[in-house]
């Protein structure tokens, strides 16, 4: 059993990170991640779940546990000392995010904090020591323990912040380096998706057998190819839609890890914030099989019991 | 009139509902602002009249033949994008934020900034008017600016329709989430429609989306999609909206007909106009646009 062998060794085993992602939103990433996490917990296989969908984090709705604290994720923004500023405009020229606005005739200088990415270029640019920096909040990383050794870590971006990436990076860091770490990824294939999957050893793509689902799946697969990440696919709401997604998987030689038929009972579990495999032996068995499939396709047996 | 359809949570049915609205309009300008996963062109096959390159930003690239591995740039980079690999300085394309600071501080001028130019904006005609969509290349950023470009084109096309004597409705299909591209999608629109579904996740994400839309002083309506999948939670969402003074524009029942329509490349209001789903969507559209039956 992993628990024993891990504690017997002085150095812990490096983590296996599995990202659960999808191009299209709402295909069932959270449902799959929460069920996989429960499956690992049930099997006493050390695991963490990281909710990387910082714009719309929902994983914590599915578990009850003990809050183990949270902390703010911040970035630096410039503060300009009007006494020292000569309105020369050098900081504005250095800023590639148009976050510094100057009217030299008035004279007036303003920092648009919501546009600032905290790169620090303005501080480097200023020759009059007129720029200092302060921290502003981007969001919060929270940790909740469902059962000893099974934390759920949530990345939550503040409303009105431009990018979830800094909060996501911090949440993944918080998860540490032990056991199986499940990353519930944000939808899409933009920077926040890349930040999440680039930290994973294996990516589970959840899709629906519809034209929209397939189109977004293709884009995700192409993106994963360019960054060299192996992936497998879960087809959710199977039975609604068409067969083209299966043809695509065959052509691309991508393993079909699981099919989840459209099921009103499953939808009802999800709706009420319940994890299906904790409620029903049937679903427990299905997600167990999914976990086995993922681990075998990942060519990794060290985490199997 | 400009209506933005958003949701917070993905997969609640934004695009299917926006497409169904479009097929009800007399002359619409349909703008797919979900530039990260644009899908509406799959249903409407717009003609490819115009394509523009969108420069999403720049990435720092290091010239190894000039670099002396002094490491000055590493100390300045706040995005942890630059690392020293056994004496060889490397910049990670995915981590680079494009701020230019490394290029400015490099004593050897070994770093250049290269445009990220793989994203596109496309505009053309479709069977209910004009259509614009953006396609952000994978991993690229600043999707909000591409949304602005899509919306500027949509506004331009609507002026052309106005001049022909139409009263075009601009329909914006927004991205999921509440980040930068969502803010760009709803800025200044006449109405924000938030599509939600009866689940705790749907409610939670609706609350976040509503906070963002309110912060921008936009009128909000909620559409409760697939409401009969969990009537209890639908009631809970309705009660929350009532408390907040947010109107429910309508409820749409769950039906396989929505997916059947999509598989055939049609909006549900085209495929099954008499179906109760289409009827519900049509009522909502009339309510939003003030169009008489």
Set down the secondary structure blueprint.
The complex is a heterodimer of chains A (305) and B (293).
Chain A: H1 2-8, E1 16-21, H2 29-42, E2 47-51, E3 66-80, H3 90-94, E4 100-103, E5 108-111, H4 121-125, E6 131-147, E7 150-157, H5 165-174, E8 180-184, H6 191-197, E9 202-207, H7 211-227, E10 231-238, H8 244-252, E11 256-261, H9 264-271, H10 276-279, H11 281-297
Parallel strand pairs in A: 1-8, 1-9, 2-7, 2-8, 9-10, 10-11
Antiparallel strand pairs in A: 3-6, 4-5, 6-7
Helix pairs in contact in A: 2-11, 5-6
Chain B: E1 2-6, H1 14-22, E2 28-32, H2 40-44, E3 50-54, E4 57-62, H3 72-76, E5 82-85, E6 88-91, H4 101-105, E7 111-116, E8 119-126, E9 129-135, H5 143-163, E10 169-173, H6 180-186, E11 191-196, H7 200-215, E12 220-225, H8 231-244, E13 247-252, H9 257-263, H10 268-271, H11 276-289
Parallel strand pairs in B: 1-10, 1-11, 2-9, 2-10, 11-12, 12-13
Antiparallel strand pairs in B: 3-8, 4-7, 5-6, 8-9
Helix pairs in contact in B: 5-6
3D architecture notes:
The complex is a heterodimer of chains A (305) and B (293). Helices cover 34% and strands 28% of the residues of chain A. By secondary structure, chain A is α/β, with parallel strands linked by helices. Chain A has two domains: 12-72 and 145-297, Rossmann fold; 82-129, Alpha-Beta Plaits. Chain A has a nine-stranded mixed sheet, with helices on both faces. Chain A has a two-stranded antiparallel sheet with strand order 4-5. In chain A, β4 (100-103) and β5 (108-111) form a beta hairpin. The longest helix of chain A has 17 residues, at 211-227. The termini of chain A are close together. Chain B has 293 residues and is an alpha/beta fold. Chain B folds into two domains: 2-55 and 124-289, Rossmann fold (3-Layer(aba) Sandwich), CATH 3.40.50; 57-116, Alpha-Beta Plaits, CATH 3.30.70.20. Helix content of chain B is 37%, strand content 25%. Chain B has helices at 14-22, 40-44, 72-76, 101-105, 143-163, 180-186, 200-215, 231-244, 257-263, 268-271, 276-289; strands spanning 2-6, 28-32, 50-54, 57-62, 82-85, 88-91, 111-116, 119-126, 129-135, 169-173, 191-196, 220-225, 247-252. Chain B has a nine-stranded mixed sheet with strand order 3-8-9-2-10-1-11-12-13, with helices on both faces. In chain B, α5 runs parallel beside α6 (180-186). The radius of gyration of chain B is 22 Å and the shape is elongated.
């Amino acid at each position: 059993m992993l628990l024993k062998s891990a504690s017997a060794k002085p150095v812990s085993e490096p983590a296996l990170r599995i990202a659960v992602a999808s191009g299209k939103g709402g295909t069932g990433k959270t449902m799959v991640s929460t069920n996989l996490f429960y499956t690992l917990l049930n099997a006493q296989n050390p695991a963490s779940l990281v909710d990387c969908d910082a714009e719309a984090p929902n994983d914590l709705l599915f578990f009850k546990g003990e809050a183990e604290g949270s902390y703010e994720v911040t970035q630096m923004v410039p503060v300009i000392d009007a006494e020292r500023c000569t309105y020369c405009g050098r900081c504005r020229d250095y800023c590639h995010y148009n976050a510094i606005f100057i009217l030299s005739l008035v004279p007036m200088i303003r920092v648009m904090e919501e546009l600032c990415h905290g790169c620090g270029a303005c501080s480097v640019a200023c020759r009059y020591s007129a720029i200092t920096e302060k921290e502003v909040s981007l969001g919060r990383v929270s940790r909740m323990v469902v059962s000893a050794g099974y934390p759920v870590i949530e990345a939550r971006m503040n409303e009105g912040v431009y990018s979830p990436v800094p909060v996501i990076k911090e949440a993944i860091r918080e998860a540490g380096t032990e056991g199986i770490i499940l990353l519930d990824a944000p939808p899409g294939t933009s920077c926040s998706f890349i930040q999440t999957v680039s930290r994973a050893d294996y990516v589970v793509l959840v899709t629906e057998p519809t034209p929209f689902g397939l189109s977004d799946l293709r884009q995700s697969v192409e993106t994963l190819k360019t960054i060299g990440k192996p992936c497998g696919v879960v087809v959710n709401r199977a039975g609604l839609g068409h067969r083209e997604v299966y043809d695509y998987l065959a052509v691309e030689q991508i393993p079909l890890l699981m099919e989840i038929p459209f099921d009103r009972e499953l939808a009802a579990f999800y709706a009420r914030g319940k994890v299906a495999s904790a409620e029903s032996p049937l679903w427990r068995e299905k997600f167990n099989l999914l976990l086995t499939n993922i681990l075998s396709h990942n060519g990794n047996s060290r985490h199997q019991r | 009139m400009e209506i933005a359809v958003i949701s917070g949570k993905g997969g609640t049915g934004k695009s299917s509902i926006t497409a169904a609205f479009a097929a009800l309009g007399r002359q619409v300008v349909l703008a797919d602002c979900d530039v990260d996963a644009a899908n509406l062109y799959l249903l409407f096959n717009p003609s490819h009249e115009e394509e523009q390159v969108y420069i999403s930003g720049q990435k720092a690239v290091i010239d190894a033949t000039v670099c002396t591995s002094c490491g000055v740039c590493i100390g300045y980079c706040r995005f942890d994008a630059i690392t020293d690999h056994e004496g060889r300085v490397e910049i990670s394309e995915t981590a680079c934020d494009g701020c230019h600071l490394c290029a400015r501080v490099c004593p050897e001028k070994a770093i250049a900034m290269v445009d990220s130019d793989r994203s596109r904006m496309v505009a053309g005609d479709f069977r209910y008017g004009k259509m614009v969509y953006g396609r952000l290349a994978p991993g690229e950023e600043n999707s909000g600016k591409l949304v602005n470009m899509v919306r500027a084109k949509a506004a331009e096309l609507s002026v052309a329709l106005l001049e022909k004597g139409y009263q075009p409705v601009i329909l914006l299909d927004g991205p999921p989430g509440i980040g930068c591209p969502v803010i760009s999608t709803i800025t200044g629109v006449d109405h924000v429609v938030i599509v939600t579904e009866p689940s705790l996740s749907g409610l939670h994400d609706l609350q976040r989306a509503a906070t963002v839309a309110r912060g921008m002083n936009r009128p909000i309506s909620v559409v409760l999609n697939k409401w009969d999948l969990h009537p209890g939670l639908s009631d809970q969402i309705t009660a929350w909206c009532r408390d907040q003074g947010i109107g429910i524009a309508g409820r749409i029942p769950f039906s396989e007909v929505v997916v059947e329509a999509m598989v055939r490349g049609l909006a549900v209001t085209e495929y099954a106009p008499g179906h109760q789903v289409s009827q519900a969507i049509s009522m909502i559209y009339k309510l939003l646009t003030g169009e008489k039956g």
